[in-house]
Automatic annotation (TrEMBL):
Domain of life, per lineage: Eukaryota
Ranges where the record places region Disordered: 82-117, 422-448, 468-517
Xref: InterPro entries: ARM-like (IPR011989), ARM-type_fold (IPR016024), ARM_ARMC5 (IPR055445), Armadillo (IPR000225)
Entry keyword Signal: yes
A single BP term in Gene Ontology: anatomical structure morphogenesis
Mapped ARM repeat ranges: 193-236
Natural source organism: Marmota monax (Woodchuck)
Domain ARMC5-like ARM-repeats: 125-414
Basic and acidic residues: compositionally biased ranges: 438-447
Composition bias, Low complexity: 82-109
Listed Gene3D superfamilies: Leucine-rich Repeat Variant
This protein's name: ARMC5-like ARM-repeats domain-containing protein
Amino acid sequence: MAAAKPTLTDSLSFCLAQLTAAAGEGQGGEKDLASNETPLGRALLALRTRHIKAAGGIERFRARGGLRPLLALLRRAAAADPAPSEAGPGSAPSSVASAASGSAPSSDSTHSVASTLSPPVRLRKTLDLALSILANCCTEGACRAEVRRLGGILPLVTILQCMKTDSIQNRTARALGNLAMEPESCGDIHSAGAVPLLVESLTACQDSQCLQSVVRALRNLADSPQHRLALAQQGAVRPLAELLAAAPDPTLTSALVRALLELSRGCSRACAEQLSLGGGLGPLVSLTSHPKRAVREATILILANLCAQGLVRPALGNAGGVEVLLGELRRRRSTNGASSASQQPLVRAVCLLCREAINRARLRDAGGLELLMGLLRDPRASAWHPRVVAALVGFLYDTGALGRLQALGLVPLLAGQLCGEAGDEEEEGTEAASWDFPEERTPERPEAGSFRSLRSWLISEGYAAGPGDISPDWSPERCPLPEPAEPVSPTPGQTSLQTPRTLRMQGRSPAASAAEEPWGREGPALLLLSRFSQAPDPSGALVTGPALCGLLAYVTGAPGPPSPRALRILARLTCNPACLEAFVRSYGAALLRAWLVLGVAPDDWPAPRARPALQSQHRELGEMLLQNLTVQAESPFGVGALTHLLLSGSSEERVACALTLPFICR
């Protein structure tokens, strides 16, 4: 069989000559773009199907200078079809067309507008081929850099605005998506106004291939926190969520999930609002059981990212997100090869879900307390321990949850956290605050929240006709606070240790309260321990060796003055009659005397170490606590309890009682 006869289009030089000629004709304005389209079309088709797809073809095309005439051809198309006079609200400015063309509009503008609404078939074919060649070339970094240098972004944005044919929109979005892989080009695309046009294409286009190209372009444009915020503020998230809710084909679903994953990184308020309003929460939760692993994992990360916004967490819990995230975290922790990096976003999300009461109830019912306790016991998860303890503070007034946590052994873990090292977790912003108390958004000048509530109540009850009848000077923030008493200056080189007795004698002004209650790394753990100590009988949890050792180690080892809450916990325990027997059985009185009065910690034996300069304050605290136990031991109840231990207790209890009596009985 004879070989196929070679044609002129087999030569790259011939195709480039045709392309250059077609691009140069527009400068004189003598011929229309479609008048010589048959040889140009053959050359473009050969470039796309043979020359570009050959090995090293894109590099040869760029080295031979093919990008310049190709972009000139696209500029001619953009100049021949300017945007309609009535642009949509999301359209780019019509001046982009003239800027892209580099020349003033021609005299036959009426014909140009008509061609915009119904472009010729040959012109559409030429644009399809040229855009396809450009999109293929932009898969290589050198071509992307040269296209940006030659100013090829503005013509693409203009074509995206003018030509609403699905095939042209598809290839233009594909070219922009490839260009957006370079950070510099991504910024230029944002500045050129392409985002509103891509968002418009999401709602207007019906072709799945075109939608996939637009979605990919938006995903590549979300390359930085600033660009992600810009995309969300320009309404790019809601159409994606609406498309996802419409149950598209599997390929488009995968593209949508990948785009939403990029847009939800460092999730902004606008992103969370749009995703919720677009009805995307339910479909995302459903996709966590998708057969493709990539879709499942991306969806899980999207849900975890959304938890950073308090306004969407209740709706996420209603959609079943709490159970999904708990189940995934439990699965990854049970997998031997799972890294801590894969668990970190899920741990953060679960802890943030504890900030709303409705989600705490779901988390408790789904076994989340046991999962959080497992994290606290795991030494490999020590970096997350402060975050987990802070999350458990949300259950502070949930009696059932506190009982369960106490049964799981939370108290000794909290005591161990008091002197542990701080984790490396970053602090959450104000937008991650609990949505149980949503912030009031008002254009008025800032006022005290209590004053706003009072003013609203007075107006609703008819005591005031309107806001103008109530002077802002009534606000509590306008009332001068009493001057706090001058504190007694401590001895130079020493730091004063305040006891519960001195704390009660100080003023109660907000400024003084803030100074009395420092909230440091140990704040959440101390708050939970204080809550446990307020139980009628906290002896089983707090009057034990590990709990007392943790509290005393914190009080004596804190770099600065310890939190007054820790001192109040110790005072509360020694003043509770129900704890007397526990102090005897656990040798707690001897521990208090040795550690605080004598300055010898269990770890110091047999070679005592040098104690800090607060030894006198510690001795004073220890003597006060032992005095509290003495009062309990000499009461009728205490006498009976100690007598029972000496006469009817086990041998261990009798020994412990005999050793404790010299410390608590005069």
